[in-house]
Structures are given as structure tokens and as C-alpha cells.
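ok new one. same drill as before - C-alpha cells go in, u give me an amino acid for every spot. 245 of them this time. try not to just spam alanines like last time pls lmao
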């Protein structure tokens, strides 16, 4: 199910956006849930954790709860959520790069851009839902790429670490045979970075990369090859740009 979050302090405009989004998603035969708020402070962390697509006004009622602040909250839980700002003020656009805004729509041009941007958003969400097929001792499994945190070498095997899905549940781990280099080749250009002989990591979960280690958004720190650090850092930056563009 696609979970959509809308926030705008203009109740009439919010209702208009909600109606347009509902109409579009129904035309695409999507199963969806829409949460619509005029007050950003009422949005819970759990709702942000489950959000796949957010359409937010930048200039909300208070500076503490404006659209950029809400987007920062969203990114703390969902780095992969597609974020579209719907605003009267184009000058806020540079701030959107900080929170990975996918598109901007000026309110006066909503009818022109909302439908095509929603179509692009659905395509991006579908791409992030790509599957990885792995052969375990119990047979073949299918894992959403976006849920894979990392691949880690264990003796002659590779452990696959998954993120909890839904959030709050117990994380799973699978063990597969074969070299990590084979998995790295299979996932080329799909958002995974080899940071060490032992680790292939999903870039979406890396918050900081230094010679001392790669820090993930859940506090995990993984070793980084010091010999290959410069090349790894360059690849990391390229992958990050690809993710947010």
C-alpha cells in the first residue's frame, strides 16, 4: 500500500490537493492511504516512518513547524520517501536540496504540474522497490533492495542484514554462499557501495563516511578500507547525487 502525507495550513487548498491525488492514484489502480494535516505538529513519528510520498507546503504557520522542518523530521525516518514541495515561494528551492526534495510545484501552477510529477514520483517509488533474489539453504528468497542495509562477509559466506519492515519489528538476517564480489557485480549502479573487503552497504543508510568508518543512521559503524578510501569516497558522493536527483 502506498502511504501519502499531505500538509498545508490552507484547509481549502489542502482539500483540493487531496482530491487531485486521490483521483490520480485511483486512475493508476494504486492501493493507497492519504493522511492530510493543516498542523505539522500533529504528525506522529510513526506516520513519518510509514510515509512513501509527501507533498508539503514550505511556508507553514510557524517557523518551528514549517515545511523544511517537517521534511527534516521525515528524513530522520525515511531517507527514501519521495518529497514534493507545493508552495507559493520559489525562493525556498535551495533549502530543498538539503532534505532531498524531488520536485517543486508553485501553487498557482498546481493543475499543470501535479499529475505529471505524481507520475514521476510513482516511477521513482517503484524503482526503489526493486527486488534482490538470493539463494539460501532454505531456497530462493526475494528481498526489496531498499530494505537491505548491508552484505557482510562471514567466513566463506555472506550475511544479508535487513532493516525492520515495518519499523519497530525485529530485523532479519539471511546467509548466502558465494563471494561478495559476485553480489557487488550484480548490484552495480543500484545504490550499493563496497567500503571494505567485508562490507557492501546500501548508500541510503550511510550518514557519514570517513577514514575512521562508515556511520549508518541506526548508529552502526563499519570499517572502511584506508587503502581505497579516496576512491570509495568519490563513489559515495556520486551515488548520493544519483539518489537525490
Amino acid at each position: 500500500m502506498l502511504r501519502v502525507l499531505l500538509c498545508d495550513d490552507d484547509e481549502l487548498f489542502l482539500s483540493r490537493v487531496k482530491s487531485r491525488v486521490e483521483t490520480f492514484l485511483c486512475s493508476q489502480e494504486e492501493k493507497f492511504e492519504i493522511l492530510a494535516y493543516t498542523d505539522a505538529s500533529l504528525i506522529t513519528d510513526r506516520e513519518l516512518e510509514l510515509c512513501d510520498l509527501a507533498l508539503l507546503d514550505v511556508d507553514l504557520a510557524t517557523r518551528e513547524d514549517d515545511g523544511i522542518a517537517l521534511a527534516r523530521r521525515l528524513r530522520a525516518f525515511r531517507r527514501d520517501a519521495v518529497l514534493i514541495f507545493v508552495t507559493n515561494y520559489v525562493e525556498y528551492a535551495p533549502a530543498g536540496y538539503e532534505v532531498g526534495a524531488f520536485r517543486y510545484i508553485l501553487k498557482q501552477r498546481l493543475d499543470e504540474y501535479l499529475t505529471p510529477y505524481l507520475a514521476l514520483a510513482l516511477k521513482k517509488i517503484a524503482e526503489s522497490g526493486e527486488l534482490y533474489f538470493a539463494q539460501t539453504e532454505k531456497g530462493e528468497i526475494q528481498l526489496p533492495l531498499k530494505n537491505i542495509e548491508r552484505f557482510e562477509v562471514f567466513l566463506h559466506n555472506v550475511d544479508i542484514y535487513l532493516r525492520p519492515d515495518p519499523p519497530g519489528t525485529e530485523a532479519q538476517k539471511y546467509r548466502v554462499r558465494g563471494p561478495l564480489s559476485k553480489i557487488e557485480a550484480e548490484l552495480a549502479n543500484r545504490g550499493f557501495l563496497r567500503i571494505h573487503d567485508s562490507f557492501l552497504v546500501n548508500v541510503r543508510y550511510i550518514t557519514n563516511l570517513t577514514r575512521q568508518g562508515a556511520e549508518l543512521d541506526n548508529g552502526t559503524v563499519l570499517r572502511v578500507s584506508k587503502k581505497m578510501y579516496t576512491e570509495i569516497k568519490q563513489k559515495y558522493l556520486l551515488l548520493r547525487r544519483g539518489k537525490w536527483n
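Helices lie at 11-27, 45-49, 67-77, 93-98, 110-128, 180-186, 229-244. and btw Residues 131-244 form a domain with the OB fold (Dihydrolipoamide Acetyltransferase, E2P) fold (CATH 2.40.50.1020).
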